[in-house]
Amino acid sequence: GYHLRMVYTPIRADVRTQYEMQDTFWSQQNMSIVVPAGQQMSLTLPDNSQVQLNSGTRLEYPVVFGKTRSVKLSGEALFDVAPDRKHPFIVQTFASDIRVLGTKFNVLADAERGEFTTTLIEGQVQVTNRANSNERITMYPHDVVSLSNGRLYKERAEDFAELCWTEGLVHLKRMPFDELMAKFERAFNVEIRIECERMPQINVMSGEVRISDGVDYALQILQQVSTGFSYTRDEKTNVIVIK
Known about the structure:
- By secondary structure, the protein is mainly beta.
- Helices cover 12% and strands 41% of the residues.
- It contains 3 helices and 19 strands.
- Strands 1, 2, 3, 4, 5, 6, 7, 8, 9, 10, 11, 12, 13 and 14 form a 14-stranded mixed β-sheet that branches. Strands 16-19-18 form a 3-stranded mixed β-sheet, with helices on one face.
- The longest helix has 12 residues, at 177-188.
- The two termini are 32 Å apart.
């Protein structure tokens, strides 16, 4: 994957006032990073927070943070936020705003599929439902908050197996087959068309496949742990048809 680092020189307090106009201007100038399918990217934000972005993810953030450190996310990212109690860090997604001070957490926000999940690894965060600002959930380590039918739900994570994407792996588990194929599309940079009469069922509780082993290997493993399917792959167009 790519690695992008931006270095910012701190301004001395005695000369800060003359930069206020420029700061206002730069805080309104947004950077937009889009990670291609089949790639991952790590970057350092203006406050030295670290972000790892999964395939097909888009992140918008200002060149300079203002009173709040606010970013917009579409896709999946692992945030390791630099502590700064005076300047809350806010991740805006289609489903919710996630407010943190200094912590480590994963966010999956896919507006197209209506999928939103955030997993807290360290620290504490507050999740507010965009559709209902009165609905707020405070999260502690190992909490997972998901969106279902417009409402936020919290449960506990025994482990962080689903965050294996940060190590170049795709997590296999009992989940809707088409949902896993959407992950495969992003991870392997392919198009997958499902043309089955009955949707295959995944029968494995937990497992991983390495992205670098390729989509054919991943599908062959999946054939062994599901109710069965066949597939064809067009090498020229990178289109996979599952039957």
